[in-house]
C-alpha cells in the first residue's frame, strides 16, 4: 500500500504543488499571448528576435521547470490519495489527471509553435491563435472544479 505515505509532509507537498501550479499557469497564460504578438511582429527582424528571446526565457525559467515540479508533486499526491491502490471515489482525480495530460500537451504545442515562429514559419491565423489562448483558462477552470467539488 502506497496510500498515505506522505504522512506529516502531506500539507507541505500539497502547498508546494499549488505554488508551482500557479507558476505554471502564469506562464501558460503568458506564452500564448506572446505567440500572438510574435506572429504579428514577423517581418521585423528586431521584433522577432525580442519575442524569441522572451519566449525562450519564459520557457526555460518558468514554464518547463514549473510543469516538471507540478508533475512530480502531483504524482506524489495522487499516490498518497490511493490512486495506485485502487481506492474508490477517485473519479475526479482520474479526470483531473486527464486534463493535466491535455494541458501538458498544449504546453508542448505552444513551445513547438514558438519555435516555428522563431524560424519564421507561422501555420495558424491570428484569429485561431487568439482562440487557442483560451485553452489554459478552460483547463484550469475544470481542474479547480474537479479538485474542490469532487463531483464523482
Could you characterize the architecture of this molecule?
The protein is 78% helix and 0% strand. It is mainly α and 152 residues long. It has one domain (7-149). The radius of gyration is 18 Å and the shape is elongated.
Q: Report the sheet with the most strands, covering strand number, pairing sense and barrel closure.
A: none
**Shape by Cα distribution:** elongated
**Helix percentage range:** over 70%
What is the count of structural domains? Answer: 1
* Topology order in helix (H) and strand (E) letters: HHHHH
Question: Roughly what is the average pLDDT, rounded to an integer?
Answer: 96
The gyration radius over C-alpha positions equals 18 Å
End-to-end CA span: 23 Å
List keywords for this structure.
152 residues; 5 helices; elongated
Tell me briefly what this model is.
The chain is mainly alpha-helical.
Please describe the topology of this protein.
Elements: H1 10-40, H2 45-81, H3 91-118, H4 126-132, H5 135-149
Helix pairs in contact: 1-2, 1-3, 1-4, 2-3, 3-5
Amino acid at each position: 500500500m502506497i496510500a498515505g505515505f506522505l504522512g506529516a509532509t502531506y500539507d507541505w507537498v500539497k502547498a508546494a504543488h499549488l505554488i508551482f501550479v500557479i507558476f505554471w499557469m502564469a506562464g501558460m497564460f503568458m506564452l500564448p499571448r506572446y505567440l500572438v504578438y510574435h506572429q504579428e511582429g514577423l517581418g521585423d527582424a528586431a521584433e522577432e528576435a525580442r519575442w524569441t528571446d522572451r519566449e525562450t526565457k519564459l520557457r526555460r525559467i518558468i514554464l518547463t521547470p514549473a510543469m516538471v515540479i507540478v508533475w512530480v508533486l502531483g504524482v506524489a499526491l495522487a499516490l498518497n490519495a490511493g490512486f495506485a491502490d485502487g481506492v474508490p471515489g477517485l473519479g475526479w482525480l482520474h479526470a483531473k489527471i486527464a486534463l493535466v495530460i491535455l494541458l501538458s500537451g498544449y504546453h508542448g504545442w505552444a513551445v513547438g509553435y514558438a519555435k516555428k515562429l522563431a524560424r519564421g514559419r507561422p501555420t495558424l491565423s491570428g484569429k485561431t491563435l487568439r482562440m487557442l489562448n483560451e485553452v489554459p483558462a478552460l483547463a484550469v477552470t475544470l481542474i479547480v472544479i474537479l479538485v474542490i467539488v469532487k463531483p464523482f
